[in-house]
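Need tokens for this chain, all 1008 residues.
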Amino acid sequence: MNSVAPRRRLGWLVGAVLFLALAFGLAYVVRDEIATSRRQADWLGARAHALTFEVQPGPSPAIRFPGDGPFDLRLGYHGMPDTLERLQHQGYTITAQARMSPEMLALSERGLYATYAEKAQAGLAVRDCSGAPLHTVRHPERVYAAFEAVPPIVVASLLFIEDRELLDGPPARNPAVEWDRFVKAMVDQALRRVDPSHTAGGGSTLATQIEKYRHSPGGRTATAGDKLRQMASASLRAYLGGEDTLPRRRQIVVDYLNTVPLAAQSGFGEVHGLGDALWAWYGRDFDAINQLLSTPIVEPDPGQPGAQALAFKQVLSLLVAQRRPSHYLTPDGVAALRELTDSHLRVLAQAGIITPALRDAALPLALELQPQVSDAATVSFVERKAATALRGQLQRLLAVPRAYDLDRLDLTVDSHLSAELQQAATTLLRGLNSVDAAKAAGLYGRHLLKEGDDTSKIALSFTLFESAGGANLLRAQTDNVDQPFDLNEGTRLDLGSTAKLRTLITYLEQVADLHGRWSGLDPSQLAAVQIAHRDAIARWSLDYLARSTDRGLPAMLDAAMQRSYSASPGEQFFTGGGLHRFENFDAADNRRSLTVSEAFTRSVNLVFIRLMRDVVYRVLADSAEANLALLEDPDHPRRQVYLARFADKEGSAFIARFHRKYASLPAQEVEDLLLQGLRPTPVRLASLFFGLEPEADVLQLLELLSRRLPGAMSSAQALQDKYGAGRWSLSDRGYLAGVHPLELWVAGYLRQHPHATLGQTLAASQAQRQEVYGWLFHTRRKAAQDQRIRGLLELDAFGELHRSWQRLGYPFESLTPSYATALGASGDRPAALAELMGIIVNRGLRQPTVRMHALHFATGTPYETRLEFRPPAAERVLPAEIADAVRRALVDVVDKGTARRLKGALVRHDGSEVAIGGKTGTGDHRFDTYGRSGRLISSRVVSRSATMVFMIGERYFGTVMAYVPEPDAASFRFTSALPVQLLKTLVPRLVPLVEGSFCSETLALQQR
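Here are the structure tokens for all 1008 residues:
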């Protein structure tokens, strides 16, 4: 028994010794690790070395996109899955994408942030077709390029405040963990759970702070898991460059100073980094501040009293404001910010970071935040017109709500624009604001500008496309309007005779359609075809096919271009709901008969009015519903349908007009308006009164008569008996009262329903609209019926023409139902005309218009993705034969027509001439006011515009335009000769493009 006890004591002793040895060994290892970081450097370095990514062709099977941290949201990384899916649905294909290593994927799956060398700056970059920059934005804008660029006093102050040991210690030190601060933070957090009043500081180093404000949701540490994730990610990132972390630790200082969030400023947006913060909050130049602070500060510079002190105090205020930037960097918080800054000045001086002299010089200085940023060096909208247009399209393409957000995406865009051509055209257009430059360019003369015209009032625009690789590539888009508004795509303009181009194409389409129906018929079958007597195009087509030996479509289209029309302005045309006369631009054409080809070349109005009439009748002849037979057969069953439709349509227009006139007016004013200009009589007053007040009695009528016609009071009862409610139809009552019957009905309805909307009034007036036009339904009034039916048939025909024009890119929701549409009455847009010209250049194929052919997201990151546009197959919208015929007509316009000053204007360096074709048009948009009798009371010129839509060679096309809005429009008289001369001035700048010395991607696209 006695031997057991010694053995037991010996075992305890041995155990105690082993425990102490283990404890001392563990303590040594911990102490050594804290001092040297050797083991974690070895372990973390090996794992960081395996965290790689590589960009390879095609979509990646090994990629994970980040969470919703502020940095990842702002640069677009978080939303890339949805963005890429959206782009692929719009014709873009992923041609290359990053592949993450298995180790990086595994850590991402575990919730760590992707470990790579992150950017301090990123933003949208738009490049031209040769890679030259068109638009570049970098956020933050003002940054330190390297650690050596940071003034030592800024580094020392930052580290003293935030992370004193960052640049100290062994080479392998882990900058993500400062052990004493970390242990103290853990103890403080534990004590706070016991005592909520206990103050608990954070244990964040600069490295973990960067992880937090970049990648943690909301830029905050919400849980212990968030903190551990930040520390682990920062630790791995520290060893990306190997076991020696000193270069990385220095980079942490730079990254923090460049990217720390410092609230948001009006006129600037979110502020990140010291450089942008100095500009946004204090209006200070970053380079000037750094120069001041890089000079050794011992005593205040006598040459700049207080300059160094103020610079340092402003920098220091921003370093301490990061704790609560949305509070301190406000008018309400600036006093607290100064107090906090002053306390840090004292502490820094006490610690020897700054001199007492600097402290004493800085303490009295005020901190004055500027209310908002105003950048005096604003770039002209003219200079960035193309970039603005591209950014607008990109914003729609990516579904980014604001241009502000778009500019902050880590994205490079390759466009088809030629920066060299864009700059040359922009410089030319801007220079023409000078009268001397405009004269030198030949813009003054007959049909051009006249002496005294102020060229600065004229908006000039130029757009050029190239057909290549199955797409229409935008090469230049510019104007001289110093506004973001785009004339080419943003407004409806009266472009005059360019509408003749659309009319000509529609005419040739009709001829081609008839050729397709009848070219295979033999003479006996052709003779049996029935033609409506007004259908001149069908009759000519039938005659041509019956007698021609060449029934091919090209020959028939050429023959159709040789059909003749009178150019006489002597005829009146019933169109647009009334009789109209039209004039030719050149009175010498008035006595001529011209072919369609000649009229197109010379832009003769009356020929195209008559051609449009034939086009309308051709449409009606083919319509099952809106058929010309309605005009020929008085017993046609659909006549009544059309008459009822006319009554409803015109009646609705009157109801709307009278509702605007009488809505919200008191009863007395309604009476005054109804009787305005009318001589009061007993019959008129009684008829009007019982139309307004059907339930009124004789006493109420007496009251009206006493006010309006006292001598008729004795006949009140007789007037009620004869003209009271139910005695007369609405039409007859309106006749007796001397006002439009629907005007009387609307006034009465609004008296009974004072808050009725127009929609409610229209719904209630359906029967009245038909009743008022009852006279029209009698067969004996066939001429009047025909006139109304013809107007509706014309309306239906233009509805059909509108669908045809829309198929070729017409941009608006309706056409003006008038032959004047052939002269531009329905308006157009230069961009839409360019699209039409592209169809002609491409022989009837509509190709997609492409402004951006490649998008490169997140370059140099594990999310890097490159997409290229793969245009869909072109859509045939016109037979090639029609496009060829129109092309020949367009070349004739330049060779011998309204654009002949362009003939021979473009010559290659080898002396060969490049063919040019086009169509010109002039629009004088007026606002006319008419009286009751239809007499023109006033006419105001709202705008004047002149356009040329052109093609150059086999691949190039576009538009050039001059436009003047009111109030200056009335003083200008230029015609389409002005844009023609402008294009002639621009053409020499196109030689390098035509010869292929711009834009390196064209050949590759053509080969593809």
